[in-house]
Amino acid sequence: MTDPLLDSLNPRQHQAVTAGDGQILVLAGPGSGKTRVLTRRLAYLIERKNIPAYDIIAVTFTNKAAREMENRVVNMVQRSLEGIWLGTFHAMCARLLRREANYLPYKSNFVIFDADDQEALVKRAIRDLKIDEKTHRPAGVHAAISAAKNDLLLPADMPIRTYRDEVVARVYTRYQELLQTNNAVDFDDLLLLAARLLQEHPGVAEKYARRFQHVLVDEFQDTNLAQYELLKQLSSYHRNIFVVGDEDQSIYRWRGADYRNMQRFEKDFPQCEKILLEQNYRSTQNVLDAARQVIDRNRNRTPKHLFTEKGAGSKLIQFTAVDEVAEASFVVDTIQQYLASRRAVASDFAVMYRTNAQSRIIEEAFIHARIPYRLIGAQRFYGRREVKDMIAFLRLVENPADEVSLLRVIAVPPRGIGEKTISGLQAAAFRAGISAGEVLLDLGRKGPDSAYWAEIGRSAALLADFGSLLDQWQSLRDQISLISLFDRIIADVGYEPYINDMSEEGNDRWENVQELRRLAYDFQEKGLTEFLQNLALVSDQDTIPANGIEEPQDRSQGAVTLLTLHAAKGLEFNQVFIIGLDEGLLPHSRSRDDPEEMAEERRLFYVGMTRAKNQLYLLRAERRSSFGSWDYSEPSRFLQDISDDLMLVQGKRSVSRRDSRLDDMRWVTTGVSSTPRTVYKTTAALPESKYKPGMRVRSASFGEGLILESKIDSDGEETVDVHFESVGFKRLLASLANLEILS
DNA sequence: TCGCCAAGACTTTTT
DNA sequence: GTCTTGGCGA
Description:
Layout lengths: L10 H7 L5 E6 L5 H14 L8 E5 L2 H14 L8 E4 H11 L11 E3 L1 H14 L9 H13 L12 H19 L2 E3 H14 L1 H10 L2 E4 L7 H10 L6 E5 L15 H8 L4 E5 L7 H11 L20 E8 H17 L8 E5 L5 H11 L3 E3 L9 H14 L4 H7 L9 H14 L3 H11 L4 H6 L3 H17 L5 H12 L1 H5 L4 H18 L6 H10 L22 E5 L8 E6 L16 H15 L2 E15 L2 E4 L14 E4 L9 H6 L30 E4 L3 E10 L5 E7 L3 E6 H4 L2 E2 L2
Parallel strand pairs: 1-7, 1-8, 2-3, 2-6, 4-5, 6-7, 9-14, 9-16, 10-12, 10-13, 11-12, 13-14
Antiparallel strand pairs: 14-15, 17-18, 17-21, 18-19, 19-20
Helix pairs in contact: 1-2, 2-3, 4-8, 5-6, 5-7, 6-7, 8-9, 8-10, 12-25, 13-14, 15-16, 15-23, 15-24, 17-18, 18-20
The chain binds a DNA duplex through helix 8 and helix 17.
């Protein structure tokens, strides 16, 4: 008899799924069936061990992973999953905190501030304390506060060794005060507050620890101290904790993740059972061997010997392009060749890069070649102004104390409320000891009878108008549906004509608002609070369709996926291009001086490599344009770790110089012809430029300098980039500059 | 108060 | 080259 739960598992997977009670540590290499083990384990506990779903907590890092697990388990078990705690760390913590809000200085309907809100609030804290914003950048201070929170440190616990530490501690203190008055928490607080709540209230900790007979954790290598502590607390009674992870895929150090939690786990639970999953079901042996050559240089890890039954497969291909445009066109040309020969469809491909900024050139190339692509991440939807505006209106209805949202929309669209009026409102709120939102509501309800009317003076009527709108929305909130509320807000403030000026961009903006409205549809039942929490906790990862399920669409061929290496974790593609294998980019220059950071760059590359099922392309460019001039770079050190027998090195494309007339031609790849040819550029037909890089020149106005670059545009006009000793970089028209050639 | 323009900063990864 | 910020005029 075959058992659908245990069917087709390899011996190691089987061992993990059916492991007994206690602490289980599964070291799962890439492509080794990690998700499968986790979902089967969950199903096994419920179905075979008769553990009520209610007594289980399973945590992941992304909503997508949680959803995927849920969907799979639902299909495997007869029983209902009702009552299970299955979700992301952040969502599970939010649930815990809302339930136990009476132990906290927050109301249970607190809002969750996203990255932008957090930075705005840090900025405000810095200004409140009259600290210089230039020397203490809000982003940097926020990063320091976030790091402290991930290490479970409150402002009072901050070690102070330098003046900077002292500044950070003060801002942190003020920042927390502001969050509290806004009835808001940030991402890190969700973890920190939950962990500390359990630490400080043994009664509460025991309640949850007794309930959760089994704790399951995905991506354990990415946990930070707060998460680790939380898991320990939750599993402290039954002591059944099942974690799955891979040190080699830990890529969130900068977010406080510590892969050594894997080792800490072994120390904290010496009797734990450790299971190694090494059989890979994704990649060819060549890809695995190359990946291993890269990752084996890291220390402090459990060596793994990934193997596959797929066979060697084809060699990796390395290509050196002359610049980032040539790099992009190699990607596009190669994909077109596959598509033309019908050996692949667009969705088989992924292009991965270290920094989001690299996506633009690639995007342009895809647009020109008319290959459909989808871009993951880069805040493209939730970061949009119009989307944030609408969310801010909704958050204000939910929680008028949310001053960040209030300030965001109080003058949107412009309604005569400016800086002065706002500071008057804030001053009145401060004196009354209540939030600005409450003052606004009072003005709206009572008009001239409000105690604040006279205090604020001239502009009180304008504030009262907006306050009255807010008041109406609040009372409508429980009477009408979420969608109706949404529409009502748009109508009341005249948002549509404000953002949609009928231009193409205006239409896009309005489309985004409509998209948000569609998202609200799914929360008609669950309500505003849930909708807002969901908006705060969705990640870009969550927009990637689940494995195997293609978007219901149009282009039956799907689209090429463009994404950062970070976003690639957990995914797989037939053909993978990793671009930008240059020193300074991958590994990134910011990791240069820190061995731990460098090791993480290596892991990041490893994660990217192991996404490839069949073919892996590694690309680099000898130079890249960075605002104005060219950056030249060496090949990434990681390339040198891959042995010659695994990799084919291809010649570079011959473009000797960037020329604006070629920019138009560059993309003229022949999409219709059956053999799309690479367009090779030559310099033969070009008019000679008078000035050449490296020449020394003298200018009447700037003195002596060195030619960095020279190009001729379509009118035959020559533009030169010169570095002058006196004034540095200048871009000049050769015909006007009258440069004298010295050498 | 608001919109326009110029100068300046800016590129690491994101729940 | 692009996005944000701040200053200035209407």
